[in-house]
Amino acid sequence: MGKKVPVEDLVIPPQDTRICGTICICQMTAVLSSVALVYLTVAVYMPAYRAFKSGISETPVMCTTTRSTQQEMCAWGSCGEWCLSKSSGACTQIFVNLRRNGSDLVFYNCSNAANKTCYGIDQEHAKKSRCIVDECKNLTGTFNCTMGTCINITDAFECVFAQTEVPLKCSGRRGKITCIEMDGLHDCNRGTCAKIKTPYNCDRRCVDIPTRNKNTILLSGDKVYLSQCLKAVTVDDEGEEEIYSWEKDDGGEDSYVVMASCYTIANTSRGIEASDCINGSLVAKNVMTDLTNFTYLLGLSAQGAVEKALDPTGRVAPLETDLIIANESKLMINQEGCVNTLMDECAAFLRDFGKDGTDHNARARFPCFYADHDPTTAITRFDIEKTHKEFVVACVVPVVLFVVSCTCLVTCQKSVVVGDDAKMRFKGCGGAKGAAGNAAEQPPDLPQDPEAVPPAAADKTETEEEEEEGAVGGAAIAL
Question: Which of 88, 269, 408, 433 has its CA 20 to 30 A from that of 259?
Answer without folding.
Answer: 269
